[in-house]
Every structure is written in structure tokens, then in C-alpha cells.
Design brief:
By secondary structure, the protein is of the alpha+beta class. The chain contains two helices and four strands; from the N terminus they run βαββαβ. The protein has a four-stranded antiparallel beta sheet with strand order 2-3-1-4. About 5% of the residues are buried.
Length: about 110
């Protein structure tokens, strides 16, 4: 079965729009990755400043290949062939990665 990675991002209220715009402009960076199955950016509604970045992968190996390949290059500012240059300030003030293995699932009938 698949694996799920949830990146928990602490995002101050004044940075929410910045974070959402950055994800909107990510130009499908993960969708073409081998083993990628799903992505969702979840905005908190109440009681927390934590966004959840949900991704689902065919295997841990596929996730690690993405992390060590195109994701790493994009976050270092080298995906387009240019050096890091002036990188924008991060919108999140903290990040925690949760990992899960899918053991059961259901879809609408």
C-alpha cells in the first residue's frame, strides 16, 4: 500500500497568503514525480496556525527519490539552473514531517 507524508507548517497569520501563493505557483513540481499519487494543501480553520501539506506516494523509496532530487533542487533555488541568489524569507516559522503507511482505504460507491 501507499505511504503518506504530512508536512506540518507553522504559519503566522500575516504569512498565510504568501504561503498559499507560493504553493499555487509551484508549477506542478511534484505531480510528474515517479510514484507520486496525491497532493493537498490544508488551511487551518480554527485554533491553530498549522497548515498541513499532504502528499501520498507509491513507496518510501519514491518519496526519498523526490526529496533528494527535484524537491531538493527547488528548495535550493537550483531547479531552473540558476544559483540560489536572493531567496525569499520562508512563510512558515517551523516544520515537522509526519509519516504514515496506508493500511485501509475507501472511496465513494
Amino acid at each position: 500500500m501507499s505511504i503518506v507524508k504530512i508536512n506540518v507548517l507553522a504559519v503566522p497569520a500575516e504569512q498565510r497568503e504568501v504561503l498559499e501563493q507560493r504553493f499555487a505557483s509551484r508549477a506542478g513540481a511534484v505531480e510528474g514525480s515517479d510514484g507520486f499519487e496525491w497532493f493537498e494543501l490544508l488551511r487551518p480553520l480554527e485554533g491553530t496556525d498549522q497548515y498541513l501539506v499532504y502528499t501520498r506516494w507509491r513507496s518510501e523509496e519514491d518519496f526519498q527519490n523526490w526529496m533528494n532530487g527535484s524537491m531538493k533542487a527547488a528548495h535550493q533555488g537550483t531547479a531552473g539552473g540558476e544559483g540560489g541568489g536572493d531567496r525569499p524569507k520562508p512563510a512558515a516559522s517551523g516544520s515537522t514531517l509526519w509519516s504514515f503507511e496506508v493500511v485501509q482505504q475507501a472511496s465513494p460507491k
